[in-house]
Design brief:
Blueprint: H1 2-13, H2 15-22, H3 40-53, E1 95-96, H4 97-114, H5 122-139, E2 146-150, H6 153-156, E3 172-175, H7 182-198, H8 204-223, H9 228-231, H10 233-236, H11 247-261, H12 264-273, H13 292-304, H14 313-325, E4 335-336, E5 342-343, H15 350-370, E6 374-376, E7 379-381, H16 383-398, H17 422-425, H18 437-441, H19 471-474, H20 478-494
Length: 498
């Protein structure tokens, strides 16, 4: 642990020495900061293209991931509701509303902060958001009801087949006043509200529809309080249980509605409820389940950039998170691998790498705007330091690591070949439920390349076996990619590639 932190800290101080010790000589370009010769623009293009590989429903004429076909065209019909569309969250064929909504929020936040730098990729990023919001509008079309899942995960996991061929039950799961789900509802409100900002100028009527729906969905979340996995445990656990409770989503949803509406009522809600909703907690994990850190960073913007004085405490809360990430600084509590990768847990660790990197770059932007910095126990941390840490993480994903492997499928000369993903792993021919398990256990590379997918990533010692059966390390997910979109846009722009 101390060894890995020392070398990671050293890498920030001595990038040339570290680069030459971990990768081929000559891989880095010349210049004052010896920037890595990564093509961030290419990575940005691919990180967005990935979402086309996750689409459910009737695919459009401009679909670019050509090995995918229409799927789930009768979703919702069992309960007489149109639930066609949306995304498969990872490598299986279930549509889980909780991670889908978080994915949407993070894609929207990526565009809100860095969309101005995306140039030609902005339209593709907005298309990825709209594919999700069109579905979320369908899922929230009935008052006081949210359809939060399509598919029976247990039955789905007993088969290994492409979404185009699936013959497992498309069971529809919902939350309502008698079976509440404040977490999934408030995250859905956050998704709709953040997307309303994205489309405000380009499609005002769609933006207004999203915002109206966000407000009504949030009211439902707040009025009928409860965690959705309490009543739906057999359906959503252990896949997407609400481990952190629903309080963080209520604060997160209110923060996005405050940003989208500028309605003082939401600011009042945050001030009155912030403490009880866990705003002052020191939990430093940010992902599909836990939004505390994201809410702190977002609310700190209102203080730093918009001068909303009543939210000053969120700057301190946000600083605490940042300090936890700084190697060698007082209050640092984050583990890094020997090769320098932020490491939270063995299952799908890359989601925390991409989400933390995005927050570092976003907070650096806010600090720069307001001429502020972070103080960690007497150590001053500048915005440029935050950017260097985020860049180091993204560069690790793209190949600056001990294995010299890109963890983005289709980027670079070496990347995972056997990802845990049915559509990618099974040949485009109809096979029966259990016949696909031959593909799962095969050592052959996936026949269909899911370009842009970020896999779960290496273990705590930078090892990656590239085995299809190893879902913890080899499975991609929409919520891994979504925050990376914003980071790649920033890095491509700052490196003169956009």
């Amino acid at each position: 642990m101390a060894f890995s932190l020392f070398f990671f800290f050293l890498s920030l101080l001595l990038p040339n020495a570290f680069a030459l010790s971990t990768q081929h000589r000559g891989h880095r370009g010349h210049g004052h900061h010896t920037d890595t010769a990564h093509n961030y623009r290419d990575a940005l293009t691919k990180s967005i293209l990935f979402f086309e590989g996750q689409r459910s429903g009737k695919l459009p004429a401009n679909q670019r991931m050509h090995w995918r076909r229409d799927s789930g065209l009768s979703d919702g019909s069992s309960v007489h509701v149109d639930l066609v569309g949306g995304y498969y969250d990872a490598g299986d064929n279930v549509k889980f509303g909780f991670p889908m909504a978080f994915t949407t929020t993070m894609l929207s936040w990526s565009v809100i902060e860095f969309g101005g730098l995306m140039k030609g990729e902005l339209q593709n990023a907005k298309a990825a958001i709209k594919w999700a919001t069109d579905y979320l509008l369908k899922a929230t079309a009935h008052p006081n009801t949210i359809y939060v899942q399509v598919g029976d995960a247990n039955k789905d996991h007993s088969c290994w087949e492409r979404p185009e061929d699936m013959d497992t039950p498309r069971t529809v799961i919902k939350v309502d006043p008698s079976n509440p789900g404040s977490d999934v509802a408030a995250e859905t409100a956050a998704a709709l509200a953040s997307a309303s900002i994205v489309f405000k100028k380009s499609d005002p009527s769609y933006s207004k529809l999203l915002l109206r729906r966000a407000i009504s969905v949030f009211e439902f979340a707040d009025k009928h309080r409860g965690a959705y996995s309490n009543g739906l445990k057999t359906w959503v656990c252990p896949f997407y249980c609400s481990y952190s409770g629903y309080q963080d989503e209520l604060l997160w949803g209110a923060a996005w509605l405050h940003k989208a509406t500028r309605n003082p009522g939401f600011l009042d809600y945050i001030q009155v409820n912030g403490q009880t909703l866990g705003a002052d907690e020191s939990d430093n994990t940010f992902g599909w389940d836990n939004k505390h850190v994201g809410a702190r960073i977002l609310l700190s913007k209102a203080f730093l950039v918009q001068n909303v004085k009543s939210l000053h405490e969120y700057k301190g809360h946000a600083d605490n998170f940042i300090c936890s990430l700084i190697p060698g600084a007082p209050f640092s509590s984050t583990q890094y691998t020997p090769g320098g990768l932020l490491f939270k847990m063995s299952d799908s660790n890359m989601q925390y790498v991409t989400s933390s990197s995005f927050l570092l770059l976003t907070y650096a932007k806010y600090l720069t705007y307001s001429h502020e910095y972070v103080t960690c126990g007497g150590v001053t941390v500048t915005p440029s330091k935050l950017r260097s840490i985020a860049k180091r993480q993204v560069d690790y994903i793209l190949g600056d690591n001990p294995l010299r492997m890109s963890y983005m499928v289709g980027y670079g000369s070496r990347y995972p070949q056997r990802i845990h993903h049915r559509g990618s792993a099974v040949h485009p021919a109809k096979i029966q439920c259990s016949a696909g398990f031959a593909a799962l256990s095969s050592n052959a590379p996936n026949p269909n390349v899911l370009v842009g997918a970020i896999v779960g990533g290496p273990d705590s010692e930078d090892r990656f076996p590239d085995q299809r059966s190893d879902y913890e390390q080899s499975e991609p997910a929409t919520y891994i990619n979504a925050p990376l979109v914003g980071s790649l846009a920033y890095l491509a722009h700052s490196n003169g590639q956009l």
